[in-house]
Amino acid sequence: MKKNTGLILLLVLVFSSCGKQEVAKNEKDHFIDSLLAEMTLDEKIGQTVLYTSDWTSTGPTIRDSYKEDIKAGKVGAVFNAITTKYVRDLQHIAVEETRLGIPLIFGFDVIHGHRTIFPVPLGETASWDLEAIEQGARVAAIEASAEGLNWTFAPMVDIARDPRWGRIMEGAGEDPYLGSLVARARVRGFQGDDLSAPNTILACVKHYAAYGAAQAGREYHSVDMSERMLRSVYLPPYYAAVDEGVATVMTSFNDLDGVPATGNKFLLKKILRDEWGFNGFVVTDYTSINEMVNHGNVADLKEAASLALNAGVDMDMQGAAFDDYLKVLLEDGKVTEEQINLSARRILEMKYNLGLFDDPYLYCDEQREKELIYHPDHLKAARDMAKKSMVLLKNDNQVLPLSNKSEKLAVIGPLADSKKDLLGSWKGAGEDDRPVSILEAIRKIAGNQNIIYARGCDINSTDRSDFGKALYAAMVADKVIMIMGESSEMSGEAASRSNINLPGIQTELIKRISKTGKPLIIVLLNGRPLDLTEESQLADAILEAWFPGTEGGPAVAEILFGNSNPSGKLPVTFPRNLGQVPIYYSVKNTGRPMDPDQKYTSKYLDVPNTPLYPFGYGLSYTTFEYSEPQINDTILAPGSELEIKVKIKNTGEYDGEEVVQLYVRDLVGSVTRPLKELKGFSKIFIPKGEEREVVFHLKPEDLAFYRKNMSWGTELGEYILFTGGSSADTKEISFRLVK
Length: 739
Ligand code: NOJ
Known about the structure:
alpha/beta
């Protein structure tokens, strides 16, 4: 099905008095109206169906009849199919072998890069660099669209405060303010400002909603929370993505207050459509309509399909529920034709927006594929981002950076020579053998002759047979670098862990090595906050490198040797132990705030309330000194804004970047308020010895929250402002919000 240009010309003339945008909208509406008028019920239902190809699998079932399904006009979109050749062949079936030739949309989980893999999203967020995050998504879109794709199942914006949950690495961490800005940056990066350009793709914000709050961090588990918590903490990033113009929304697997998200009218109609005005299409997660039968809120798949469509789902991912049941549900009067039309229309509109009716093969350009995959600019952006994402957690006696290139280094650990684990989970089409390992990258900088390597142990086994070699390496070296952590499979979907220690016998090996007394540097690859209490007592330095992507090896080496100064800050709290979880910086005061000298106060007997490494924390090779914050007024009135100034001096020996953070506390509210809430941040570069001033602006509306009666707005009274380089290291000043 191609656009009729004669008709379009006529329409352009008819609407010449309207604005350009209105003409385009009318043109699109007319095209879709005419198309829908030609479509049979089966063809409309076909648009609401999404099936996976057999290129790769991201879920429990593979429907091997998908090619016949496409030919029968029963499919609106396909996922997990890549490369221009493969996609072109499938598109050809849709365009040439079906009655109306309606092109397919091609989706894929392009989460942190397509071929050129960037750090996992939690790591990218640790950069606090929104431009770089947007650029990462842009690069991902360029490569994905050069390999046949026009839809990514990203950004994942689920707020997560439980490190047991394996998917914590796929989002932006614990904070709704930071998470919302990152969500916007990613949507902009994927979609650009013209969806019909061949290098932009539809984004899909997921998993709506509150998937990150699964009980006890166990994957797919139930979610139950107050509406206040939902709206204040979990919903803002989805809203931000919608407000930024995200094209599609994916429902989540979990139930929420007893209703699975995929059949949840409150989420999909009341909030998403009515309150937020979302006008793209809603796709389910993988067979999540079917899973409502297991949830136990419907008796069978037919009822599940009815509930999903009635709740506001437009497209069924892989479940065949719409395919099998929408027609009979219509005959039974359980759904209406208008609903089916509306869903089909929303999907067709996105095809139109992508330019697929002009050219169904727009995203199948072999030349672009050849030129753009692993383009040097993409690799450079990935390396820069990897460096920005790393967080220096500890650096006693300035053991880092390693400056003396002639000293002997022992490089030890199960992840030192791994390539594939650098990529992390959801690595898109990233190729396991592409990265340079950290060991190889260190050898390149330090010289082969200065490196002595021992694997030491596996990531997750009890085999101690290489301990001796590792100990010998440490003994003959001047310094020891241990590359430890999780395998990439230990993060991502269906990868919850019931403890957050370093897996296997890694900590035991660290203990043994530390006894040699050699300066000990630990580099961590992992996708979640870990319990590092023991390791932090054994190591002189700890560098959190997350899963840093295709260029992660050289990026780690460049940081270790000081070619680059770490500037990442934690987007999520690292607890002292799992018993503190959930732990996050924006907690409430309680009626009995912690007092170490008073028994009956809110605390533990065995650990302090504070985390090991707080939200917003991260060291640099240099040091920064903060001035007291200054404000232009102690009164904030409607229509005005506070100007908050803070001076930061680089007092160390290196040029460096610092993430200056602004937090607020509302001292008295109609409901209890967090002790601190992030309200702003600025990442600045300060040459050594120099000082810079950062200016923040705060308006009354920035202080709005869900008040006692659930209305959104501000309350007058005393507030405290905090500025600093971490949520736990701030200087404060007060002001009053007045009428
Ligand atoms: C299930 C995951 O939850 C979702 O994030 C992903 O996009 C789909 N599978 C498709 O692979």
